[in-house]
Amino acid sequence: MNALNIHKGATSHSAYDLRDPNAEIEESHTLAVLVENEPGVLARVIGLFSGRGYNIDSLTVAEVDHTGHQSRITLVTRGTPAVIEQIKAQLGRIVPVHDVHDLTVEGPSVERELGLFKVSGQGEKRVEALRIGDIFRANVVDSTLESFVFELVGTPGKLDAFADLMRPLGLSELARTGVAALARGA
């Protein structure tokens, strides 16, 4: 009998599914890190991630206190709960870091991202791109006879969905800011 035959009642397992069924599942977490606004701080934070093989899905940085010279780094990363705890602990040990908040576990938060989408097309594709842009409440910030540039603010999922719909209509270029997030409430 051929080894590839599946017997009645037997379950089939793919050779490509090599994940340990008992392993912890990776989760996406949004971290807000308050740091001194001084040269090299961002490089040290990034070095922590690259040195340990962690990935950053999204990263935004801006000064939030001009008089106190503090910046806020908002980053989205993935990992098992143990890895996320390790990341938070290691971030907290970097000297110019004042505070580390895991917005994913600390309660409700608001996350937004800005995206610019250049869509090239004519005729029906152009009309359909404008219709979809209207549904998503995207603003047209530039227009030529050959293309539009849409501006869209929303959750990362909303921007992903908009990009997926615009690809067949002529999406030719895309720029995204990365996630900015704040905890809700007091």
UniProtKB/TrEMBL annotation:
UniProt xrefs under InterPro entries: Acetalactate_synth_ssu, Acetolactate_synth_ssu_C, ACT_dom, AHAS_ACT, AHAS_small-like_ACT
EC numbers, comma separated: 2.2.1.6
Pfam families per UniProt: ACT_AHAS_ss (PF22629), ALS_ss_C (PF10369)
Keyword annotations of the record: Amino-acid biosynthesis, Branched-chain amino acid biosynthesis, Transferase
Span of domain ACT: 30-105
One GO MF term attached to the UniProt entry: acetolactate synthase activity
Reactions mediated catalytically: 2 pyruvate + H(+) = (2S)-2-acetolactate + CO2
The protein's annotated pathway: Amino-acid biosynthesis; L-isoleucine biosynthesis; L-isoleucine from 2-oxobutanoate: step 1/4; Amino-acid biosynthesis; L-valine biosynthesis; L-valine from pyruvate: step 1/4
Enzyme class: transferase
Function of the protein: Catalyzes the conversion of 2 pyruvate molecules into acetolactate in the first common step of the biosynthetic pathway of the branched-amino acids such as leucine, isoleucine, and valine.
Family statement drawn from the similarity comment of this UniProt entry: Belongs to the acetolactate synthase small subunit family.
Quaternary structure note: Dimer of large and small chains.
Name of the protein this chain belongs to: Acetolactate synthase small subunit
Gene name, Swiss-Prot/TrEMBL: ilvN
